């Protein structure tokens, strides 16, 4: 176990406020020992979700025996996960972590850290030249300065190995910075700009122009992406083989936009999420390709039974279909598709308004159904019997009689309602 002197423990960065060396030494030792074990066994250093102040201090404490040992191992680990540590991971913490491990990092996640600013995030480009995975999603203080720093880092551009970039909900980044950055990411395979409300058609066009190896694109919530922008993005020759596209909440996208997606990537597309796109209909879904495995049309009110028929007859690889909030399906069509899905092992998410009256092809045990009806009836009889017994045995004033009658009536109505619902559900 590493040893710590009071002098060493006093050298923790000022960002670790509240740390008491006398009270926290044993906790810190345990955290460092766990860190050494995890790094050796999994190749990853993970501090996430309800991070303790002692673990954060351990990240910054480069002089400790434990971290010297980890640093000496170099390439034996390459992942640092600081996601969802909220305000605890500050600029000082990230810079200290990059100083320790930046030259060897393959993956870095700082997602959801509200205290990080461009100043620290910009260090990623200078100190992490081997990154393949970078997640800065929900770091709401990051802006164009961060992206510009990546673009301007000569070392980052020269040895750029980035394959995954998540910019989700970085609200302050704009199209110009994104377009410049994409020009320096030749092998990027997955990108998320979900919730980046300032990005629109120009960013989308740049994505398909520069990312020749693109496999996954999430642009959910990018409300300024238009049908014309989709058409322009797909108008030229596209060499990528897109497998996963998500554009939930892109309110202007229409049938023609989705048709372009389906036809352009007919042999590669496996996942398509179009939730909440009210302008798409059966005319788009009829082009869904045969290799599609996961389709989400939740909240697409104009999608009807025709789409279900097409999906059943043509989408042979389907594994999951989300229909929540779709009011255009008949119970008959849903029931027929559910029976088909059950036989094929397809997971189906149903519209809630159709579930209560839908025969979903599930065979309920008749004896269990009969037993439930009898139990509900017995509850009703018991309530009535208790009410009658109370009235018979108690001598009450007129006001008490009225209150008891009202109370018993309410109970009767309640249990009658339960009985009726049970009959409807288990007929």
Give a brief description:
This protein has helices spanning 6-9, 21-42, 53-60, 65-73, 91-101, 118-121, 123-127, 144-152, 154-158, 175-182, 201-210, 227-233, 255-264, 282-285, 305-314, 331-344, 352-355, 366-393, 398-425, and strands spanning 44-46, 79-81, 107-109, 133-135, 164-166, 190-192, 216-218, 244-246, 271-273, 294-296, 320-322, 347-349.
Textual characterization of the structure:
The chain crosses the membrane at residues 404-426. Residues 173-339 form the F-box/LRR-repeat protein 15-like leucin rich repeat domain. The protein has 427 residues and is α/β, with parallel strands linked by helices. Among the domains are: 254-363, Alpha-Beta Horseshoe (Leucine-rich repeat, LRR (right-handed beta-alpha superhelix)), CATH 3.80.10; 366-425. The protein has 19 helices and twelve strands. The chain has helices at residues 6-9, 21-42, 53-60, 65-73, 91-101, 118-121, 123-127, 144-152, 154-158, 175-182, 201-210, 227-233, 255-264, 282-285, 305-314, 331-344, 352-355, 366-393, 398-425; strands at residues 44-46, 79-81, 107-109, 133-135, 164-166, 190-192, 216-218, 244-246, 271-273, 294-296, 320-322, 347-349. It has a twelve-stranded parallel beta sheet with strand order 1-2-3-4-5-6-7-8-9-10-11-12. α3 crosses α5 (91-101) and α10 (175-182) runs parallel beside α11. The longest helix has 28 residues, at 366-393. The N and C termini lie far apart (67 Å).
């Amino acid at each position: 176990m590493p040893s710590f002197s009071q002098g060493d423990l006093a050298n923790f960065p000022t960002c670790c406020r509240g740390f008491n060396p006398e009270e926290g030494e044993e906790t810190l030792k345990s955290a460092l020992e766990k860190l050494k074990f995890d790094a050796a066994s999994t190749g990853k250093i993970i501090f996430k979700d309800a991070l303790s102040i002692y673990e954060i201090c351990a990240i910054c404490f480069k002089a400790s025996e434990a971290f010297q040992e980890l640093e000496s191992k170099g390439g034996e680990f390459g992942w640092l996960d600081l996601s969802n540590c909220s305000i605890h991971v500050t600029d000082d913490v990230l810079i200290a972590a990059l100083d320790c491990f930046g030259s060897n990092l393959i993956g870095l996640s700082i997602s959801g850290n509200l205290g990080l600013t461009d100043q620290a995030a910009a260090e990623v480009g200078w100190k992490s030249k081997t990154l393949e995975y970078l997640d800065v999603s929900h770091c709401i203080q990051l802006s164009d300065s961060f992206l510009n720093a990546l673009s301007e880092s000569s070392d980052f551009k020269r040895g750029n190995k980035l394959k995954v970039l998540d910019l989700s909900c970085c609200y302050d980044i704009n199209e110009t910075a994104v377009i410049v950055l994409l020009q320096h990411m030749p092998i990027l395979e997955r990108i998320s700009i979900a919730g980046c409300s300032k990005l629109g058609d120009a960013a989308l066009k740049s994505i398909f122009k520069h990312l020749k190896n693109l496999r996954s694109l999430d642009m959910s919530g990018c409300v300024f992406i238009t049908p014309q922008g989709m058409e322009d993005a797909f108008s030229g020759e596209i060499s990528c083989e897109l497998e996963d596209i998500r554009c939930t909440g892109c309110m202007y996208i229409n049938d023609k936009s989705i048709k372009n997606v389906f036809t352009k990537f007919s042999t590669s597309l496996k996942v398509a999420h179009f939730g909440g796109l009210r302008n798409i209909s059966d005319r788009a879904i009829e082009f869904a390709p045969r290799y599609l495995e996961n389709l989400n049309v939740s909240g697409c009110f104009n999608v009807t039974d025709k789409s279900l028929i097409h999906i059943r007859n043509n989408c042979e690889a389907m594994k999951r279909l989300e229909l929540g909030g779709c009011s255009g399906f008949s119970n008959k069509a849903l029931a027929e598709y559910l029976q088909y899905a059950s036989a094929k092992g397809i997971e189906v998410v149903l519209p809630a308004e159709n579930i209560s009256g839908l025969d979903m092809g599930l065979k309920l045990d008749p004896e269990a159904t009969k037993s439930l009806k009898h139990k509900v009836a017995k509850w009703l009889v018991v309530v009535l019997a208790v009410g009658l017994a109370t009235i018979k045995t108690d001598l009450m004033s007129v006001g008490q009689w009225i209150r008891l009658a009202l109370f018993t009536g309410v109970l009767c109505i309640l249990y009658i309602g339960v009985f009726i619902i049970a009959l409807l559900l288990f007929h």
